[in-house]
Amino acid sequence: MTPAEYVQQKATRSGSSFYYAFLFLPPPRRAAITAFYAFCREVDDVVDEVSDPGVAATKLAWWRTEVATSFDGHPSHPVMQALMPHVAAYGITVAHLAAVIDGCEMDLTQTRYIDFPTLTQYCHRVASVVGEVAANIFGRTEDATVAYAHKLGLAMQLTNIIRDVGDDARRGRIYLPISELQRFDVKAHELLRTAPPYAYGDRFDALMRFQAERAHRCYDEAVALLPEADRQAQKPGLMMANIYRTLLREIEAEHFQVLHQRISLTPLRKLWIAMRTNWRGH
Length: 282
What we know:
globular, Farnesyl Diphosphate Synthase
């Protein structure tokens, strides 16, 4: 299997909403974003699939070395072999990849966040930096597009957090800020239950509506930040935004029933949203 085939398989198997936006890119940009996305998946999978934190930390350390070695001209992993031919053309740096690793490493040492500013630091590493690299690959010409990409990354990560409250709790992680749990009188131990009765009710509903409203504001702010000069090039990012925001609205329509299940959109619906965004341009 070639490096290009490896990253393509990694992206396809993930079932991610990102994949549907990649389909509309010209081949060189599609190859670059697929390789970068595969890198993000490889690093994220270390944390999600390795049960021993010590082993996971060792694997993340290996990835740090692999990134450094790759930028010195000697990539050994197929993901880095696929990515390196594109780093110069699209401004991908060691710092970008290191930030993604740093964010995933936080999951090994931090399972709670005291307030939203603290959570935002985590989101910046695992999502906003990813958005910045993606915007570069899609074709960024304006500095202001970086701010758009960071805000959109935050919005999408907040949507992930809302969708995955139950799944994350079963891994022992709660991303909803402690200060906000206290504000809405929702106890951490209620979210950590792995069997009924789940913490559904007025308190949980109010907490989640607060989370959703903030995510919606971030989507609106992101779109407002996108310069007109880059709007056409950034259509793949807008496709992802529309897919994720549709998911958020679906979760709202399901009354935030996210503790016992993972609400998702069908592949066909994701493809339709991507196609519609491509036609309409927004």
